[in-house]
Amino acid sequence: FSQIPMALHLDHGKTFEICQKAIEAGFTSVMVDGSKHPFEENIKLTRKVVEFAKGKDISV
């Protein structure tokens, strides 16, 4: 393993599944992009990713 601290970030994860796979693969942060969805659906998607990431020390 590297002795250099690093971060691995997913930018513009458009689906829950993409964000989920990134988290499971070891990404340290994800950015959910629900911009194509209506506001309420965007919030629902973001909450789902936040709940999945909770307790895994992942920034959303």
UniProtKB/TrEMBL annotation:
KW Lyase (keyword) present: yes
Keyword check for Lyase: yes
GO biological process: carbohydrate metabolic process
Keyword set, alphabetical order: Lyase
GO molecular function terms listed in the Swiss-Prot or TrEMBL record: fructose-bisphosphate aldolase activity; zinc ion binding
E.C. no: 4.1.2.13
Enzyme class: lyase
Entries under Pfam families matching the protein: F_bP_aldolase
Stated name of the protein: Fructose-bisphosphate aldolase
Annotated organism of origin: Candidatus Collierbacteria bacterium CG17_big_fil_post_rev_8_21_14_2_50_45_7
